[in-house]
Batch of 3 targets.
Target 1
Amino acid sequence: MTLLHTDVAVIGAGLVGASAALALRRAGVATVLIERGLCGARASGVNFGGVRRQGRNIEQLYLAQRAHGIWARLPELIGTDAEYVRTGHLKLARSQADLDKLVAYRDKVRDFDLGLDILDRAALRRRFPALAPDIVGGSLCPEDGQANPRLVAPAFAHAAARAGALLLEDCAIAHADTQAEDFLLTAADGRQIRAGTVINAAGAWGAVVAGWFGDVLPLHVKYPTMLVTEPLTRQIGVSLGVEGGGFYARQVARGNFVMGGGYGHALPGDRSRPGPAALAELGRTAPAILPALARASIIRCWSGIEGYFADKNPVIGFSARVPRLLHAFGFSGGGFQIAPAVGETLADMALDRGRLLMADRFSPKRWTR
Amino acid sequence: MTALLRRVAPLAGPALRLTWNGQPIAAQPGDTVLTALLLAGDRLRTTLGAGAPRAGFCLMGACQDCWVHLSSGQRVRACSTLAEDGMALVDTLPGECP
Amino acid sequence: MNVPSSASAQPQMVVVGAGPAGVRAAQTLLRHGVRPVIIDEAPLPGGQIYRQSLVPRGSARQRYGFEHKRAAALHAAGAQLRGQADYRARTAVWNATPGHLDLVRDGDLDGLRYSHLLIATGATDRVLPFPGWTLPGVFSLGGAQIALKGQHCLLGPRIVFAGTGPLLYLVAYQYARAGGQVQAVLDSAPLAAQASALPALLNQPGTLAKGLYYLGWLRAHGVPVHHSANLLATHGTSRVDGVRARIGGAERDFACDALAVGHGLRAETQLADLLDCAFDFDVAQRAWLPQRDADGRSTVAGVYLAGDGAGIGGAMLAELSGERSALAMLADCGIRVDAPRLRWLARRQAALARFRQGLDRAFPLPGTDAGCDDGVMVCRCEEVRAGELRAAARQYAVDDLNRLKALTRIGMGLCQGRMCQSGAAELLADCRRIPLSAVGRMRGQAPVKPLPFAVLGKDPS
């Protein structure tokens, strides 16, 4: 029976866990990165791929701005740009009331230098003629962008491994013991990992993992529905969202449109399927926003499994009850862009060398007040 | 340019008249769009990525390599679509948007 | 009783596919007083091998050769179905969930409940990538046959046939008979393989005789037939104008205007996959196939599998397995079936299976040898080259085909892996030096074929 001793055990090699492991290794901390399946294969790998600051709760914008800087340095950090491009993100208003909300958001976050630019109907027609002419306006964040989610998290995990983290894939944890001085994690294959600190970056299963240690957190699991079209001639470069949510779309370099909206349902075995109603709704909404899609076909649809908290903020913080257990999950559909900054922050918190700004908004204790 | 297909035997009867990229071509009832186009030429489309020429492959609706457009914008899979009189077929649609 | 617990009181039996297996299955159900729903993408029954055109050209003999009587019988049975069963022509199943099928016909969506489902979705050519295989003028063997059988047209004028399998000789023969200029037949199988398969092939002396007849006729009419002939590359820039092959030890060029290629057949298993049927790796077919018992039951209650869509066996075996699976479905519903008939079917199937094993030995399926250059485009749809696949496999230590798909987009394009999965699996196994069975298979997603937005978003009427 193998027994591994380490400083930090990270549970979950999605983008949050993998970037935490990389940051820990850059600080010289012994780290084991434990993944039940293959790294980056869950929400981190199947999400929409929008690298987006605009639209976030204001308290997330510190992390988002820190992440913005990290995304620009991906080649140097992880050896690939993972197809990250700052295409701009355009959030559409389909009514005057929606446009008012976009303006209010721009005003509210003006201190964060997102560079938000409000466009009226005429400006949209001029700059983005592929959009339907009846769209009232939009808010453009020119430096938001998109990347290939299937590449990013595995690249972080492998970079962490190259930096000396022990990456354990196909390693499901069967049992977790909190002991006097440390944690003892036992894998299904009998391997054991002893660690002074545990980071729970288990994504949609974060509440399950929290439960191993007796922490109860009110995570909802949802199944975003996504689809992709065949390659089309270039219609639009910016990635798109709508005020109020429910539709997001981007055209990748090859010409396919990736888009999503609505939710599907769970299947046995930790899987999920797109929702028929969500697909039908996308079938109506997408051509209404991008008329060229009326003649396109969908070639594949899929669904992800994501964890949500009602206030749309993740938990990022130490357990109230278990010392040295650090939770980081429940990114409520917005984990992709901020994850690299969350990873660095987790390393800071584990090393007690930095604080999370507005920590109370992310605290695991925020429901017990 | 040698067409990729030729008929085993000529067919009698009035021809269907189609256009392919603006050029008139003829077909017979029962011809698929792919047959009509490859009786007249040796290419169906150019790929968006590498700009490579394609002319279909499996002829049974599996490979998805034979999609062409009607001038209305609608896409048709050439091997599984019957040629109809008056069809205006194109390999690319006009215009691109930024 | 093998009925899914979610079924409503009234059994609803559905057959997907109106080729040899589906037609015989539906006919069997009708004979026992059941009115099944039959769903087929084509306008008329027959599948690929007995494909019927709306506007038939040439004679039945020209279209189906020695099989024209079988074809006629199958077509007659199909015509009866169209009158007596709920026959949905030109209808595609784009998604399957337990107890429910999503259909599309003529731009309209529909849903269909089932309690018992027979999947008889047939097969397409198994193709391995090689330099230039995407060029205009390169087609699959099945495609070349459809041009002739379905459209009464010939690819060419000068055409080379390459690959392996009985279809190689049949199509080359049909082309040469129809006046095509067949430049060569290049069989990757060694002659010794065919010799050693003779005992098994004698299980079906009539079929063996036909095969030998095709080969003999080709030779007698001056068509060069080469064994141990491996396609190396095509020549030509905007279209094929020649091929290069390695025959024995030497490389030879053949000028041509078209190339028809195929290395056996590949079962269409997307619906079985979507329904979570368990799959097993078949060594001879070098492919993952849905598990089924001797009667055709899958591992999922209420789902049955028959014909080439469950594993390549040819048209005769498909007819038998279609009938047998229908009998199993009926028995599972408590309907009396004829035990002697079942035993007769089992014996006939066993004899055909022994013949099939002979064919597998006579025409061994090659893998992609390590000589598939980095520049070869493995994924036609997403334009992914062999070099990219190898680089990703090495960089991320990839031993799983689905992982390779996620990292490189292979199999994510319009054809959803139909054309590239065989080649990608062989390449990954070779690159990582692991057995082909170890790389697994690509998992499918709906829609099984591209679905227009215009259809998806229509308001239900």
Target 2
Amino acid sequence: MGELRLMKGNEALGEAAIRAGLQGYFGYPITPQSEVMEYLAQQEPHHNYVFLQAESEVAAVNMMYGAGGAGARTLTTTSSPGFSLMQEGISYIACAEIPCLFCNVVRGGPGLGTIQPSQSDYFQSTKGGGHGDYHTIVLTPNSVQEMVDFVYLGFELADKYRTPVTILSDGAIGQMMEKVELPDPIEYKPDKPWATTGKTKDRERNILTSLYIQPEDMEKKNQKLQKKYEKIKQNEVRFDEYKTEDAEIIIVSFGLTSRVTRKSVDIGRDKGMKIGLFRPQTVWPFPYEKLSEHADKDRVKFFISIEMNAGQMVEDVRLAVCGKKPVHFYGRMGGIVPDSYEVIEQIEKIKE
Amino acid sequence: MKKGYKLIYKRPETLTKTRINYCPGCFHSTIHKLLMEVIEELDIQEKTVGVCPVGCSVFAYNYMNVDMQEAAHGRAAAVATGIKRMLPDRYVFSYQGDGDLAAIGTAETLHACNRGENFTFIFINNGIYGMTGGQMAPTTLEGQKTTTSPYGRDPEKIGLPLKMSEIVSQFERVAYVERVSCNTPANTRKAKKALRNAFEYQGKKLGTTFIEVASNCPSGWKMTPEQSLKWLEERVFPYYPLKVFKKPDKKEV
């Protein structure tokens, strides 16, 4: 049993990073994630990591590239407009295969938008974001506890696959306080023979690059990345289910909305509706197979994707269900969180 | 070694045995060699990490036999910051052109200098975008013709060429700034000394070190190598004088 504390999501994420062996944090202030920075700035003297406030998110992501390339365990956190600025860097990091952990505490967009929670960066996070064929592993916490757990998991997966990992959170998960169990600190000992730490006599020089000017070489690099992504798809799909065993209606939600719709399941069941909740914890790789299995069940009548956006994950749900059952969507935008009763009303409308 | 012969010069081990692809007459190859000689002479190959930019020297890691990272355009100073902060006992350098350091990467350059990041900038200022075929750079001289200033750089429209050494030498935490060139053997020797100073100061953690090379680009300038040397003397040095802008106090050194 780790240490129990009542913590804000953003601060818990910072504390988890320290315990998971953080070596370098580079960030730029933006609401609603600034508490992560503030927490890590405050804690820096008591621990052995570097905290640096960059001049922009563009600089921060490139500091991540340098520090991660030097073999360090690195984290940056930001919110939507800042994450957009980081996309170029993430494309380079993905191609140069540098382990780095990102957390996007999403706020409503587009543009400067609002500082309220949203899930409208789903496409950006799961379908690329920057240029070129690449993915980051995308973890979607729905509690302060998962803000902590996914930091450990995120660092681990980043190292294991030499890939950038994104924690796709939102303004509510980042700001809310909950009871959280903090795992014991680990002593991080990186084993990264590829890192640029200085060419010793016993090895060739290490080069981290995303430049392959000959198209044959660039294709080979892409094939290598795709092979890695296939492996990730096989091994790292994560999801959680609630009362889906006998469900006729399956709600699909991730992150904050899954907290809302979990209650909708109970409200619906009290009314005699057989509802269940399917919650992807990784949205890349997306749990296509498991959802497809549900679609094959005769008892399942339809799916409904509930999101805080104009309908983004629903496209993946449709891909998974592949026309076998109807797939509906209900969403709120611009920083509005739907409530559990509203969701039931929508489902009742479909049933009529 | 044959009997009776004395070795007076050899290729440094810190340069790979790759054929260099720079245009004939370009200073890049000379500066690569000087830099790698300095690293060999200081015996710091095992402790050196370089960052190359986007531009003509994008392939610098093919020639330099040290660990290297390839940065996105303009971001070398941020990448070098990340490396140096994680590995403070290593020697870190960024090798950047004028478009990279003084246009798209100006913010990263100035903030790294203001923080006094303890790495060495090697700034190759040839007043043109060589890699992309000779477009106007932030350091293109007034009236100088390029493919995107075909009637000559017009300060009314685009301002005057940026003087980066003059700018960064004003930052308190910048320890050493010198502008050098390689147009004559004497200046080439001075350039090597400046590079050596920069790495020595970096080793003593004195702050940011910044070496600007007033360089040439025969291909982009549409000149023979010889004409390019003349252009340097007549046009470039009057605007970009070769000098030490800032150096550490004697007692620090």
Target 3
Amino acid sequence: MQLEQGVEAAEETVRLATEHLSRIPQPLQPNITGAVLAALATVQATVAFGSSEVRSALDQFPHGIAHETMQVFLSEDEAREHTERELRYIESHRLPDRRSDEELEASAANFETSLRQDRRELARLERMPNPDRGEIRRLDISIQTTELELRRIHYELERRSGVDVPEVFEEDVQAARQAGTTALGWMTASYLGADLYAIVSSAPPILTVESERFFDSLDALEGHYGSGARYFPGTNHIAVRSVQDDIVKDALEATVAHEMLHYIAYLGGGHNIRWTSDSGDLVEQGEIMWLHEGLTELHAQQLAHSHDIHPDSSSYEHEVRTAFYMQRIVGEPVLRRAYLTGDFSEVRTLLNARLGEGTFETLAKQREYVPDPRQPGATAYVTRGSEAVAFLVDRMDAAGVDRSTWDEDPLIADSVRAERLIQGGEDGSG
Amino acid sequence: MDLVNTNEYKGAQAKIALLAQRLDAAKKADVAEIRDEKAEFFQKMRETNPRLYSAFRIDDNQLSRKIHKKLTGKDVIVE
């Protein structure tokens, strides 16, 4: 039944996409592929949200069909319901824990013993004048992992006893709300461009703060660990983890800005990377996740720094470094426009002119994990930021690009230093 | 960048490619096994070689996204 509704809604999407094509601002105009992809996205969205919500979103906000993305714009209450549905759905899909209550409690006792030992050892190391930093990091991760295992046991026992109260700290809600207001204030018309700004103003991102249990459940489902924020494509919903940890909460504005930029770039078509070739053909590469993440974090960090917020660390150091070098070569406005719209034609032209023909294509025409039969071993393509950095550095050196001052920028300086440590024969983990 | 030329890097690269290929081909019932293997692989890497993990963190997130989609049919961007 849901599938039928999805197909019905998909047909409606194609009709609406066609009808509204001329009304959508030029940079966001979907092409035929976009309309088909929008239809597919609608099937998925319908299964996730129900056809009435999809229809309602389409009716109320035709610009929601931005490029190939069908967006369902949620209010704060709807975003909250979305989270609750997600949690129920995820927990109903996870594999049952077959251990008895007694076994779970015994396991928890073991974890608690191990946790005490690790914490004692960590405290001892931290009192030393020259502690082994690598060992401290290992213990930190071990402690975090054990705490997670304990929380999971705790959730399972709670679930069995009928207690079901995911905890969200009010202080975190207030902090996130403040960070959300601040970060949204950075997304100005001059930064996003008038068309995209108008859409974002009509359908701003919705930020919710979710319990550790919610995030732990998502992580457990995926075999992941400790994710702190999520964006749900196809919606304007962003979720951040409620956690009483000052390290995680460092410069929350930058984290929130990062997730907001995911949403805004998706809205603008930024994840459908495409360009015009020398022969004038449109090349549609689609999503390149490492590049998208690098650009997202680069822009989030730069926005934060430009508003006098200086995060202690950033994510995706290699991907950010690649994006940073690209930005220095093609110019900030050009790269930002490409990031937000997905049209990398100008980036390609400028990058290839400076670093040699084929530079951009090698970076962008990746084949994710799938070997290209024409390129045995798929070594001709870049599949992640670390390889992109290596490739770009080689090209820059060959082209005689002086990057000495770029490498001192705080955004990439740590990455450059760590690389030098490896080159100097150290492991860089200390 | 020397990191990408190390044996550790190449070993991890091959393992990740294999995990991704297995995941693409897996039926829903088989995803849990691959997920657990992936979780153990990356967790060990985080603990023992954080520098190497920094290069493959994007893959950890991307594989998580694939697993999520495979198990629930829904899309989510992990951080």
